[in-house]
Specification:
Distance between the termini of chain C: 40 Å
Largest sheet of chain A: 4 strands, mixed
Number of helices of chain A: 14
Protein name (chain C): ABC-2 type transport system ATP-binding protein
Radius of gyration of chain A: 29 Å
Order of helices and strands of chain A: HHEHEHEHEHEHHHHHHHH
CATH class of chain C: Alpha Beta
Radius of gyration of chain C: 18 Å
CATH superfamily of chain C: P-loop containing nucleotide triphosphate hydrolases
Strand content of chain A: 5-15%
Number of helices of chain C: 9
InterPro entries (chain C): AAA+_ATPase (IPR003593), ABC_transporter-like_ATP-bd (IPR003439), P-loop_NTPase (IPR027417)
Keywords (chain C): ATP-binding, Nucleotide-binding
Organism (chain C): Lacibacter cauensis
Order of helices and strands of chain C: EEEHEEHEHHHEHEHEEHH
Number of strands of chain A: 5
GO molecular function, one term (chain C): ATP hydrolysis activity
Helix content of chain C: 25-40%
Number of domains of chain C: 1
CATH topology of chain C: Rossmann fold
Number of domains of chain A: 2
Distance between the termini of chain A: 26 Å
Chains: A alpha/beta (about 375), B alpha/beta (about 375), C alpha/beta (about 250)
Helix content of chain A: 55-70%
Structural class of chain C: alpha/beta
Strand content of chain C: 25-35%
Largest interface: A-B, 119 and 124 residues
Shape of chain C: globular
Strand order of the largest sheet of chain C: 6-7-8-3-9-10
Oligomer: heterotrimer
Shape of chain A: elongated
Largest sheet of chain C: 6 strands, mixed
Chain lengths: ~375, ~375, ~250
């Protein structure tokens, strides 16, 4: 135990003697947490619309002005040829094209039926899809108004109708920040933690100091614990800073209480730091360690369920996410911050994370060899 | 210039060139000897493009929902069956009371609850009117929104089928086509994005780290006392990574076309040239970072931890830039990946030519020159 | 006489794939002697030493250090030895004092012992003023002396020195060897590799490794006589010429 104390003392001293890295550890998450959540807004608005109007009738103009006044769309071009509109899409100046064919008004009035064409840029499939859905619903409204102009009001026979009422729980104002901020905090915490430990042991390998340690009777487990503890504490400080910013800048107060978050984070950090140490015991150079941890981080971050939904992934990818600690913490954050879930609700995630922590750290201890 | 001077200058040039190439050769040997790193460098983009190409999609599907059916009649049964049959929903739980809804949400698996009141079928039949309540877990507002829309659409379809839909006068029909990506595959959007990200981060990180590593180990000094100009020493270190990146560009494009079935609609030559330009931008950013970082750890933190999330979030492939508030739209302009993402999307998927992306190309070239000038200047100052 | 032998090595071998770095070497080191372990670069000195320190697993053969078996009791061995490698290996971002504290603590010494010993060493090396300076800021010669002091800080039975004087000036080398003698006087067995042949003269006994084998082992005087040479340098050259393996 006494050896451990000396080793810990050493690690702490080394960390605090490198102000450059310490500054980055604290500044970077703070800055990113203040800036990045503002970028995350999936809400489809300001859809850039190019209109091809071959009709130039009263109705076509009315329709266009109705669309632009809806607030969802931004009219970026109004041309008579489809190719001109298509060019706008190619130049990224339009997301959607609405084509009003010649004699649209005439057909609608004389033949009771007319057709409009929508073409959406579907590279970002969802945007194309949702944008055209909005456009269709505005056209439907317009259709109703047209009908009213021609038909007396009460003429409709009562029709079977299912009324759909919807409500949004946990985040009734649909504030994206409540969802993104804790998620981004998890990502930052993970990257800082895993990267710090990933290059720590291998750094000693590169400099040669590890050999001096290996020739002493130090126990492997003590060595690993001494590496783990300081970064664990740093991680908790980063988390605290992050929660503070969430409160001050975004007004986020976890409904399920801070305790739940800290309890989970304590175990989570052990798992993530253990993973870093494991990478470190395998890598021969810092460069290798960084490449491996970068590779894993990319998978963890992009398949973590923050940016895209895990349910929508193919089954094999969902299996990958089960081994992704980030996906558990993001899940837990969402539950605790917004739904008010307590420790009892996150039992399962907690258990899995504890298992990760034990396995990864034991693996790191086993794989750290004092003798080649 | 006299002919003699001319030959001298030529000889000097020749010597400088030979020196330069011998340095490049040394760097290549370093990388070649370290098979593990080489393997990761070349294998990583392959694995990532496959994983992300298939796994990432903005679409919301197979979402788990819970049903609270208080009516339990034929109408509700068929409505539930219809919800379950749609690709968007999997009915995961049948609840028996309103109180259970919150618990189901809190356990975290259920994204939407559908409440069918008692006497649903009766009401439909006799009053011609019935109601369905949807409760979405809005902790992820995007998913909540989308699922509510999808569920409403399924219910409306159901309604249309049970009422023999009468044809109304003065109807406007709408025909919708999806350009470029009619199957709405996620890969069309994410392949350009992942490509930008992988190239940027790998190139930046690798150059930054190898140079700082030499500084740390003291071997940089040995090279700097050689007759070669210090700028050349630094650039020689980036050349092998440029070559490696070319291989990575090739493998990413091959995989996109043959595994992910994302077509290259525009000119392959233009696409490759733009990718190489972007690689150069990333390498010079790496040089710049290496001139500022004192240790490999710092270099890594700047090139990875500090660049990663901003690249993901501000380059436009995850979140539409036009939705961002003004300051962030401005910040996104300095993210190199944003411009490359636009270029790849335009050339690869829309199939447009240089005329459509000249502005973005110019911006990337500007960034390249800026990073390179500043980096070299800083190296000069440091070395004096 | 068995108790007099503090290191016994019997046909100790280390192979890396098809390459035999250390080829069935056999020798003993007596308690309290300064044992010079010589050889050209690449002859296998460092590998042999690393096996004895428990840093490298032998392929075959037998060896004991301080009575412990190198295969099974390598952690016990570590309690009885000190080690200083050719790569300077104190923590450069810790101060002189902190390094001593760390290694004292790792070997389980009491705080009082650490304090006393640190003061003693600092005084001895005239480093009192540098006690709270980062090791990284010291000149190389001082670092080497400091590394040696740290290697024997916990008063081990044996200390292994792997080319301890590489890259330092002649004066410092001289001082360094004075420190070695002092340690030997205090009863510490010294096991030292070097390729400065003048240093070989300072050793009680010298072994010379060529191509992974021990080719000669005796006192410097006997070796010079045996090889009819005036200096250890000549002895070494005569032996090293036989080498087929090229050093790097």
């Amino acid at each position: 135990m006494r050896t451990l104390k000396f080793l810990l003392q050493k690690e702490f001293r080394q960390i605090f003697r490198d102000p450059a890295i310490l500054r980055i550890i604290f500044m970077m998450p703070v800055m990113q947490l203040i800036i990045l959540p503002w970028a995350a807004d999936y809400e489809i608005k300001n859809i850039k619309l190019a209109v091809t109007d071959k009709d130039h009738s009263g109705y076509s103009k009315k329709l266009v002005s109705k669309i632009t006044s809806s607030g969802y769309f931004q009219l970026t071009s109004y041309e008579s040829s489809y190719n001109a509109s298509l060019e706008k899409v190619e130049d990224d100046e339009a997301d959607l094209i609405l084509e009003i064919p010649a004699s649209f008004e005439k057909q609608l009035v004389k033949e009771d039926e007319a057709t409009l064409f929508i073409a959406g840029n579907a590279i970002n499939g969802v945007k194309g899809n949702l944008g055209s859905a909005y456009l269709r619903s505005i056209i439907q409204d317009f259709n109703r108004e047209v009908r009213l102009e021609w038909i007396q009001l009460p003429k409709f026979s009562p029709q079977t109708q299912i009324e759909v009422r919807s409500s949004n729980w946990f985040n009734p104002l649909m504030n994206y920040k409540y969802f993104m901020v804790p998620g981004i905090l998890v990502l930052l915490l993970t990257m800082v933690g895993a990267n710090l430990t990933a290059i720590n042991i291998v750094k000693e390998k590169e400099i040669g100091t590890i050999e001096q340690i290996n020739v002493t009777p130090v126990k492997k487990v003590h060595f690993i614990i001494a590496k783990l503890v300081p970064f664990w504490i740093l991680g908790l400080i980063v988390l605290t800073l992050g929660l503070l910013i969430s409160r001050l800048f975004y007004g986020i107060l976890p409904a399920g209480g801070f305790l739940t978050i800290y309890v989970f984070a304590a175990v989570y950090l052990l798992a993530v730091l253990g993973l870093g140490l494991l990478i470190s015991t395998y890598a021969a150079t810092q460069q290798q360690a960084m490449l491996i941890s970068f590779f894993l981080m990319m998978i963890f971050v992009l398949l973590g369920g923050l940016y895209t939904s895990i349910d929508s992934m193919p089954v094999w990818a969902q299996w990958i996410t089960r081994f992704n600690p980030v996906s558990y913490f993001i899940d837990v954050m969402r539950m605790v911050v917004l739904k008010g879930s307590g420790l009892a609700d996150i039992k399962q995630q907690f258990g899995t994370m504890a298992l990760f922590a034990v396995v990864l750290n034991s693996w790191a201890v086993l794989n750290y060899r004092k003798r080649s | 210039m006299k002919p003699q001077q001319h030959t001298q200058a030529k000889q000097k040039n020749g010597a400088a060139r030979r020196q330069f190439f011998s340095f490049v050769k040394k760097e290549l040997l370093h990388i070649w000897r370290d098979k593990r790193t080489l393997f990761i460098l070349l294998g990583m983009p392959v694995v990532q493009i496959i994983i992300f190409g298939f796994a990432l999609t903005n679409e919301v599907k197979n979402s788990k929902i819970a049903v609270l059916d208080q009516s339990k009649d034929a109408a509700t049964a068929s409505l539930i069956a219809e919800l379950n049959a749609s690709r968007y929903f999997d009915v995961e739980a049948n609840l028996t009371s309103y109180k259970e809804i919150e618990a189901a949400f809190k356990k975290g698996k259920i994204k939407l609850a559908v409440l069918l009141p008692s006497q649903f079928a009766e009401d439909l039949k006799h009053v011609n009117k019935a109601s369905v309540q949807l409760i979405a877990d809005a902790s992820d507002p995007n998913v909540a929104n989308t699922l509510t829309n999808y569920a409403t659409a399924v219910i409306m379809d159901y309604q249309d089928r049970i009422t023999n839909k009468q044809r109304l006068p003065y109807s406007i029909n709408v025909e919708t086509r999806m350009l470029y990506n009619p199957q709405l595959k996620g890969a069309y959007n994410f392949v350009p994005g992942v490509m930008a990200m992988v190239l940027l981060l790998v190139c930046t990180m690798m150059t930054a780290i190898t140079i700082v590593r030499e500084k740390e180990m003291g071997t940089m000094e040995i090279m700097l006392v050689s007759p070669m100009r210090p700028q050349m020493v630094v650039i020689a270190k980036a050349v092998p990574y440029f070559l490696l990146s070319s291989i990575n560009i090739a493998s990413i494009l091959l995989l996109s076309v043959f595994a992910l079935e994302v077509p290259i609609n525009g000119s392959l030559l233009l696409l490759v040239t733009e990718s190489l330009l972007f690689t150069l931008v990333s390498l010079s950013l790496g040089l710049l970072i290496s001139s500022a970082a004192a240790s490999q750890q710092v270099a890594m933190f700047i090139s990875l931890v500090a660049l990663f999330l901003p690249t993901v979030m501000l380059s436009g492939f995850m979140f539409p830039i036009e939705n961002m508030p003004f300051p962030l739209r401005m910040i996104s302009n300095i993210v190199p990946a944003k411009w490359f993402y636009i270029i790849v999307r335009s050339v690869m998927i829309k199939g447009v030519g240089l005329a459509a992306v000249w502005k973005e190309t110019l911006i990337l070239t500007g960034m390249l020159l800026f990073f390179l000038t500043v980096a070299i200047k800083r190296f000069k100052i440091r070395l004096q | 006489m068995a108790s007099d032998k503090i290191i016994t090595v019997d046909h100790l071998t280390k192979r890396f794939g098809v390459f035999t770095a250390v080829d069935a070497i056999t020798f003993d080191v007596h308690k309290g002697e300064i044992f010079g372990f010589l050889g050209a670069n690449g002859a296998g000195k460092t590998t042999a030493m690393r096996m004895l320190c428990g840093l490298s697993m032998p392929t075959s053969g037998k060896a004991t250090v301080a009575g412990y078996d190198v295969y099974t009791q390598n952690e016990q061995i570590k309690k009885s030895i000190g080690y200083m490698s050719q790569k300077f290996s104190l923590y450069e971002d810790l101060t002189v004092k902190e390094n001593m504290q760390l290694y004292g603590g790792i070997y389980g010494k009491s705080n009082a012992f650490i304090k006393e010993k640190t003061a003693f060493i600092l005084e001895h090396l005239h480093l009192q003023d540098e006690a709270n300076k980062l090791v990284g800021s010291l000149p190389l010669g001082w670092k080497q002396k400091l590394a040696f002091s740290v290697a024997i800080f916990h008063e081990p039975e044996i200390v292994f020195l792997d080319e301890p004087t590489g890259g330092v000036d002649p004066v410092t080398r001289r001082e360094f060897w004075n420190m070695i003698y002092q340690a030997a006087d205090n009863g510490i067995t010294i096991f030292v590799t070097t390729h400065y042949m003048d240093e070989a003269e300072y050793c009680n006994r010298v072994s010379i490794m060529v191509d992974g084998k021990v080719e000669a082992l005796d006192t410097p005087a006997m070796l010079k006589q045996q090889y009819q040479s005036a200096t250890m340098d000549d002895v070494f050259l005569k032996l090293a010429r036989k080498a087929t393996r090229s050093g790097d």
